[in-house]
Amino acid sequence: MSISARADPFPQRDSWAAWWLSRLNTDHKLIQTLHWRKAESKPFTEGAGGWSPQATDRQPWMQLDLKDRMEVTAIATQGRYGSSDWVSGYLLLFSDTGRAWKQYREEDGVGRFVGNVNPNDVVHHKLSHSIRSRFLRFVPLDWNPSGWVGLRVEVYGCAYKSDVTDFDGRSSLLYRFNQKSMSTVKDVISLRFKSRQAEGVLLHGEGQRGDYITLELHRGRLALYLNLGELNTGAGCGRVAVTLGSLLDDQHWHSVLIERFNKQVNFTVDSHTEHFRTKGEGVSLEVDYELSFGGIPLPGKPGTFLRKNFHGCIENLYYNGINVIDLAKRRKPQIYSVGNVTFSCSEPQLVSTTFLSSSSSFLSLRATASSLGGFAVRFRFRTWNPDGLLLSTRLALEPQRLELQISNSRLRLTHHTSAQQKEEVSTGEARKRFSDCVSGCPSVNVAGCVNPTLAFQGCMRLISVNSQPIDLNLLRQGRLGNYRELQFNTCGIHDRCLPNFCEHAGQCSQSWSTFYCDCSGTGYNGATCHNSIYEVSCEAYRLAGSSSGYFSIDPDGSGPLGPTKVYCNMTEDKVWTVVTHNSTDPIRVQGSTLQKPYIMKFNYSASPEQLIALVAGSEQCQQEVTYSCRKSRLFNTRDGTPLSWWVDQAGERRTYWGGFLPGVQQCSCSLEENCIDMNYFCNCDADTDSWANDTGVLSYKEHLPVSEIVIGDTNRTFSEALYRIGPLRCYGDKSTWNAASFYQESSYLHFPTLQTELSADLSFYFKTSAPSGVFLENLGLKDFIRLELSSPSVVTFSFDVGNGPVILAVKSHVPLNDRQWHYVRAERSVKEASLQVDQLPLRFLEAPSDGHLRLRLNSQLFVGGTAARQRGFLGCIRTLTINGVTVNLEERAKMTPGVSPGCPGHCSSSSSLCHNRGRCVEKNSGYVCDCSQSAYGGSSCTEEVSVSFDRESSVTYTFQEPFSVMQNRSSQASSWYRESSRARENMAFSFMTTQSPAMLLTVSTFSQSDPVPLWYTGSLQIWYHLHVDRRPDVFILFLAESVLYTSLSFFILPLHQIDKDMNLKYSLTSEAELISIKSLALGKVTEAVSEDVMWAGSKGFIGCLSSVQFNRVAPLKAALLNHGSSLVSIRGQLVESNCGLLADSAILHSHLLSINLLFYKDGCCFSQIGVVTTVVFITLCAVAVMTRFLYRHRQGRTDASVTEKEHRHNLETAYRRETAYQAEPAYRTELHLNNSSSLRNNREYYI
């Protein structure tokens, strides 16, 4: 063993001596311990001394020569003995030759080692993967700021022996089998190689039936081609090509392991493994005659090869336990050598230089004149950056100069002939490989190296000027030129896309210092494509305000499963998720026997893994089985052997049929005791000549869905069966209301350790009245992750992955301990960390580019507290999801003191779960919406109730007793309030018609002579006729012909402007009030009214009316749901329709809205040409006492681009305004959580 210090251009340093303590060859023993002292110093005792460079050394390093290749497994360092000199951070490099070096990096890419904090303590580092090398170099990065560099080292490991062969690019080794062909179902191939070129075949074998295996370097990556298919199955069948590794032509050793069993293959390059299955029907690899290593020789033509041969060294080559190189060295007959194959590894004298900085690195060379005149430069380079200056030089003819740069990943040569003129040539792709380049020579003047773009950041080697190679050692000593921020004898390029940290098939790209993920088309977003852009369930879409339709759901969120499309049925109280399969139509079966049964396999629109996740996350699932039979039995055999059955999701045979319990061969008629023959448990087992039926519903969700059906008794005369398997239907989301209540500060729930080394997302809802508390915590030896409410208005996310603690905090402008639900989402990946609280701005922090990546935890996950039982959380936590997996808080809470399952108060904490006057009803695990007081239906009171009218249709709703608007007033309100709000009516509806005139509705009273009609004549007209001796008040709203769909509001209140946008005020002349309301009629008017009203009323209404609301009455909904009610009178034909949905679809194509509001003093009507118009008309009508008839004229223009959600919001505006106006408790605001995806920008959380 020997040591050396780096040679440098400064005066000769003091001589150094090394002291050899021990060197052991047993595994993982101490190789050597090194201490140093100055040669002229006095003798020292054990432990004294240490290495310390001169203060003038610009780039100090210390190098060890182990005299032979050793396997190093650990290192340890100390500072210099008896001094204030130590190294606090360093790099470790290794080399076989002492010239070409490679930096050691841990599994997560970290190359920096943490050193000492004092001169005496020993800091050990066990290497995650061992180093097999002769030379080690320690490069100090940081040291004691109050002292200097000081170092003592220990190296641990064992001796390393290997069998090596060298291929010169024109040679190969052939391993010949003892028989004609070798057929194997299991193969293990291992080797280590280092290559001088980016292309070359390392291994190849093939068989006559089409099987082959090829291991080949291509563009510095290793590709495995494996084919187990048959020749007659078509081109490419069974072929698999998998690529691993990067920059493998760096002239350093790389390890390869191929393990195959049947169709399963594990392919490992260095520490990166790819698992895959071969395609095709074959399970064995059949290779004829021989395997070749280093190339593919052409049969019958010695020295001729089909592909480019491997140029480099291979060691320890094993094929199924056989040491191929050892057989070749011993000249065994199984091995045949082609070309010049030697058994030692020749080392090329190639030295690379790394340009470390994209802003300040440069290399300035003194150029000598060429004998032919002019200048020439040749070099090879490698980089990840798409831009950078490679070369700049002044030419002999001033002011001409030459520049070579990488621009947008292409080489561009620019010849500047003058200050204003230049010539350019662009060619080639400059990234990810070494390229030969010839161009003009750089200037010797450093000031001449002006970077018009970014400086080059990457590696260069084989630099020559005017055909003279540049000795980089002389350059480093300052004899050939000048430089800044270069690293000699190594190429420090690092592939940041290996491994690929982009999840869900995201595409990775990179620069020198970082990587990027392209998530296009993956269904995910975020820095590493971690976050799903879809909801996890149909229930989540309902909470977001959606209605029935097809949606993409992601059952495991950010987990490995992708999204799938399902139908979400939200028309009932339960939200049903419907998954279809390939055979939903009835199928007739004949001619099947138990020996040759009929078999149908069902392929669902979701993968089996997605179906399992969907079923597991649902409260209940079911699948209808319709089975009709004629002389076709199910179970009627003497020995009890079933004749037909179905197969569940796990591949298990099931013999119970729809409607019965698992484990019993029976049908639903047995359970209901109504089988046609009580001697049998199924109707079909009666084996009659007439058709029978055993239809039922499978509801044991752990067995669903049905994956296969087998029918085996339809081969007799007149025997047949008819079956239909319905779609899988599931309802409920077990995660949405999975909650736990914490009522003791020392209590917590504990779960297994988080498995979130590289990425973690955690989300949940909480509500509390406590000022602080820890939501969750998980600890490691040094690493940790924690989420907490650190103060009443601040949520904090903190963690440490080895780079020091990171803290992200979001502060709310209002207290968060207000006993309302609040949403928290924290994410940590190798790229960044983020924290989201409600709709507050997202906080995020980028991760260091060369820091530790893996979060290493080893304790339990604590929820609602900490292991120290301090700073526990008091309140409720629900829907805790970690990396797409919902944590079952309720189950663990049942057995934990101080914690109870569930959390009451869903409705009180969420003001907008039920829309359009729907009432939220509390349940143990959630809520339901009571829509009885709403004109809308559905699970959230958002589905429009629509009816199609013809000319004779009418609906009359009669109030139970004389109804006065005065009952809406509060007796506790002030006199000012009573005066300003009396005579208020709240009316809302939608209509669509092509008829003009058309009567929409009328309101009749017991005391006034005429009703209050509203009709459409191309314009909207409202008539108020409250006195016999006075003319009616008439208001007209003109609709521009360009209007397809819009939402309007206007209010009639005395002396008050309600809204400055769409809400318009009208004033009446009548001094009477609209009191004692008798009835409300929709459509044709049948009672006696004035001549003017009858003119329009007799025409009736042809079109669609939707979601009619009058105060707290929904007459149209009552007409549909209560046909026999004495309150509802229906005339003519009334048909329930989806015309309201058609009107909603028109929102997507709305145009400019032009509103003209005109008042005529004489009260006459105005008629406009009828157009197809769809209008949602919201009006608050109030009758006030005025002294004279007053007309006001206003014109307004507004642009309407209305979404479905905005439309419904407008329909609710009047009711909310009325509620606030009556001084009831203020409704709570809807919180909109804005996410990065466009889809989620439309999502609402009501909390």
From TrEMBL:
Bilayer disposition of the protein: Single-pass type I membrane protein
Domain of life: Eukaryota
Database matches in SMART domains: EGF, FA58C, LamG
UniProt key word Transit peptide: no
Domain EGF-like: 493-530, 904-942
Domain Laminin G: start-end pairs: 164-345, 738-903
Location relative to the cell: Membrane
GO CC term, one of those recorded: membrane
InterPro entries, A to Z: ConA-like_dom_sf, EGF, FA58C, Fibrinogen-like_C, Fibrinogen_a/b/g_C_dom, Galactose-bd-like_sf, Laminin_G, Neurexin-related_CASP
The F5/8 type C domain, residue ranges: 51-158
Disulfide bonds, paired cysteine numbers: C876-C903
Record family assignment: Belongs to the neurexin family.
Protein name: Contactin associated protein-like 5a
Source organism phylogeny: Eukaryota, Metazoa, Chordata, Craniata, Vertebrata
